[in-house]
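Bit of a strange request maybe. I'm writing a small parser for structure token strings and I need a real example to test against, not something I typed by hand. Could someone generate the tokens for this chain?
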Amino acid sequence: MKNLMKIQLKGMLFRMRQSGGKRASGALIVGLLIFCLLCIELVFVALWAQMTVFCTMGLTWLYFSLAGILALALAVFGSVFMTQTQLYDAKDNELLLSMPIRPMQILMSRMAVLLVLTGVFTLAALLPAYIMYAAFFGVTVQIIVGWVLSAAALILLAQAVCCALGWVLHWLLSRIRNKAVVSMTFTVLFLVVYFYVYTNANNLLTQLMQSGEQIAAAVQGAAWPLYAVGMGMGGSLPHTLFTAVLGAGVFALVSWALAASFAKTVTAGSRNGAARRRRGRRDMRVKTPVQAICHKELRKFLTSAVYLTNFGLGLVLLVALPVAALIFRGQLLEVIGLLDGFRPFVAGVVVLAAAFCIATSCISAPSISLEGKSLWVIRSLPVSGRTVLRGKLRMHCMLLVPLSAVCVLALGLIVGCSVVDTLLAAAICAVFGWFVGVAGLVCNLLAPRFDWINEAGPCKQSAAVFLTIFGSYFVMLAFGGLFALLYSFGLASTLCLAACAAVLLLLTVGFHALLMRWGGRRFETL
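Reply from user aminoacidic:
Good idea to test on real output. This should exercise your parser:
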């Protein structure tokens, strides 16, 4: 058991210290963690300073109940995916199960390390609440004992919930062919929830404080354990003991259930993966070289969680633009009507908003670097470098160009642009999607990166991606300046859009010719 815990801890620390193929110093890692924790603590201190109003209302237990709920939610959200990965996706699971080691020992060795992570998240929410209460109302020994025991119980309870949800996630992911889509969906949902909470934080806090007594009555009736947690933190010894027994009991029950099914769960995931590979081998069709490379790139994009999450988010934002415009159409039209002389620029603003999302979706920018150590495989095939680049560019354009045109077409009509301006805006964004694909491949040929350990290197820490995104931003801002310049000379907004579309098309065709001639030769020398 001790050796298992030591191996698990060393492995986690080793992964934390890896950064872009280089080992980061321990002092740097600790410093960054401390800085992040301090930032989080400052936010929570400001939050709990406002929530102490419940204590002045005689609802101290509700104050601590809310602290317990927030701590539990933060710990589960921050640890559930790490728990699922460490328990069920570890590469040495089958090796350890083949040894005379009980499943419970394997689980406990990993849970012991995960408890540290869960404890950090839990205490990050609880400590500011404790500090604010102590600063305003003081503490006693009985309250401190309640805090310590309740915090330990919440850590065990949060870890039990993480383990149960990790088992559910593993069961779902083992039956889902494309795990990257799940990761992408989770990211989008998180961003939606985050921005909703961020934009409505003041209103939510105000409503919470105004409805304190109603919330307290509801908690006491329908959610009595939360009432017990709050009373335990407030110094009630019986409720403190109940909270401790609840956390330890749930943790023990979940651990026993997971240990009983651990071997079956791990081997089931391997069998499902083998079955998917056999099905994939049967799905084979004759394709041209460009189609085959395009299909390979598309499969890579849709099955790589890092690749899809980083460059698929722009595609989601493109779809979200017309949806959001339709929802808030009345407010948008009202704002446009209030701004005198803004109507001719509406189509240009639509183009710039869509261009931001298109530049973020530079799918082609890391595609050459992602070949990594397997670059020799595609180089050894009887196809030219030009053919490979055409296949990669085709995949990028297949995803981005039609989607950009359709979304901008819908967005322009929703905000009241004329039909001609809307068509021109859609054409500009479609060509811009093509331009971003070409620029991404050119930048990747100029600055390839094949020394990465994981896919986050070429996707997040690549000069090609940086140059493509910010270079595309600069190009669209330059075209915005061209539009304003032409309009200042007296040209109609429609003619300005048409001129911008023509210039962008010529620029993209020139870049495309450069990619096919110089880029093909450059790829063959990588």
